[in-house]
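Narrative summary of target 7.
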Amino acid sequence: MKRVMLEWILSPLQRTAMSPVCRHLPLMTKPSHFVALLVALPVVCCTGRSATRTAADSGAVLAASQQYVQAWIRGDTAAALGLVSNDIRILISGVPDVAGPEATRKLFADEMATYDVPLLKLNHEDLIVSGDHAIDIGTYEEIQAPKKGGAPVQGRGRFMTIWRREGGDWRITRYMLNDLPVAK
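Modeled conformation, tokenized:
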């Protein structure tokens, strides 16, 4: 990418310097070429470090997401709550919005007291990381087994999770679930 960008910037400069009309002019006399070089050099020079940080952040967000999934599978309310921000908002189709740590604690505790979750699978389709925020979009499949007996409940849907870096850790600040029909 860097090489292509540099070639794109330098090729008009080389053509200009070689053309019969401009052969006597020193390189970079055309203002547009100079401006293009000034704009592109920081992009070319800084992309490596930025890309490395973004890759590391993406990995950290996916690891936090996996910790969250495992907390639900273990029925560990404290571990799941440890991965959410104090200003959490949860948006689930058919359920009033859940906002704040107390409402979230109640939702998690009630769900984990009612169901075991033997399967919770996330398919991450899009992960966008920018600075201290990340947006994770995908689909999920889950099975909830009622602790008091009864048929397991299969769920399938879309999710969108907004993560924020807080004190070096990634925490969920917004969480949206939309049900999809269960595959037959």
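The helical segments are 2-18, 31-74, 77-81, 101-114.
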